[in-house]
Specification:
The protein is of the alpha/beta class. It has 15 helices and 10 strands.
Length: about 375
């Protein structure tokens, strides 16, 4: 058995839990599941996979539940996983080597989040990096909601060091029925508001409030909280700060506050190495009828490392480039029109099965068949 215990907290997770536990099964982890009041078969399912099951009275504090789970583990090294996540890739020997080499460090893994799509965009994902592996001798969770791993006695200013681990999780918690998403958002918002009352200087909670309103398609409120969060003096290299900036810009575009979004030009130097931000700037320029500036950003981002949003360095900018050339063709004389249309076609084809691109290709083919 690896010297790592998987710790989970759960409530009414019978739908997701089997898939999660199946993904853990081949690796022989000790699994600790702390149940916070399930009315379904969550505990029975966990026991059937030989998980050690404990009850915990819910106190509106995710960290309290996670730390209770860690206290029940046999091993000091804890891997925190949620029931609506499952392993898609892991190299366990490398992970064990890293924890031996860096006993006080924490492990950062990739989580691919499935997002609510629509008939046009289909399923889409957004990848984040989170600390989920840690030694309970030196670290624990803090924060009632959107909890984070921090050093014990972290308020004394102790630094936390990390290493990337070869482990990838797939998360489905952001998709589901409207009522399910709404209930989850309300719970999160209530807990975040309570956390802000205790510490109104925590910019991370402003960010998470904005994210919660984005999930509920309430973009005016999302912008309000993102704006408050970004009013703090924040370090641009922090992942959550980068995500907040991009989500703020996307929300402004959703609201057609396009001129306001142009103000992001002022922070371009700080975020110019972030692929999602560069793509966002392309969108902002496009929505403000500045196609040449937009084109420059889209051409830049396709040569950058993979971003957090699925397709942000591939089919999304390809599509935007195609649209720009498609529109430019309309204003060209007959001799130049075909050249612009050919470039548009090339980029539409690069988009693969992206539905809007496929639809436009079909329209162009229909026009050609009609001889128009």
């Amino acid at each position: 058995m690896p010297p790592v215990s998987v710790c989970m907290i759960a409530k009414d997770e019978e739908e997701n839990l089997p898939r999660c536990l199946e993904s853990l099964k081949p690796y022989g982890f000790e699994v600790i599941l702390v149940d916070t009041g399930s009315a379904d078969k969550t505990k029975e399912i966990a026991a059937s996979y030989n998980a050690k099951v404990f009850d915990f009275e819910w106190v509106d504090d995710f960290s309290a539940a996670r730390n209770f789970a860690a206290s029940k583990a046999t091993n000091n090294w804890i891997l925190a996983i949620d029931c609506d996540e499952y392993i898609t890739a892991i190299k366990l020997p490398q992970i064990l080597s890293l924890i031996r080499q860096y006993p006080r460090y924490v492990g950062v893994l990739d989580i691919e989040n499935e997002m609510q799509g629509n008939d046009e965009t289909g399923k889409r994902t957004y990848t984040t990096k989170l600390v989920r592996l840690y030694s309970r001798k030196y670290n624990h969770f803090a924060g009632a909601i959107h909890e984070q791993v921090v050093p014990l006695n972290y308020k004394e200013g102790k630094e936390i060091f990390s290493f990337d681990i070869p482990l990838k999780l797939y998360h489905t918690g952001y998709v589901g029925s409207a009522s399910k998403i709404s209930a989850k958002n309300k719970r999160n918002i209530d807990l975040l508001m309570a956390a802000l009352e205790k510490d109104p200087q925590d910019a991370y909670n402003y960010f998470q409030l904005g994210q919660s309103y984005v999930m509920g398609d309430e973009y005016e409120k999302a912008c309000e909280w993102f704006g408050k969060g970004l009013a703090f003096d924040l370090e641009p290299s922090l992942e959550y700060v980068q995500t907040m900036v991009v989500a703020y810009g996307q929300s402004l575009l959703k609201l057609k506050r396009n001129e306001e979004a142009l103000n992001f030009e002022g922070i371009y130097p700080e975020f110019s190495a972030v692929p999602d931000f560069v793509y966002l700037m392309g969108r902002i320029y496009a929505e403000n009828n500045q196609p040449l500036k937009a084109l420059a950003e889209f051409l830049k981002v396709i040569n950058m490392p993979e971003g957090k949003q699925q397709g942000v360095t591939t089919f999304l900018p390809y599509y935007q480039i195609a649209v720009i050339y498609d529109n430019m063709a309309l204003s060209q004389a007959a001799g130049d029109k075909k050249e612009y249309q050919d470039i548009a076609l090339m980029y539409y084809r690069k988009c693969g099965d992206f539905v809007p691109a496929q639809r436009r290709l079909a329209e162009i083919a229909d026009c050609a068949d009609c001889g128009s």
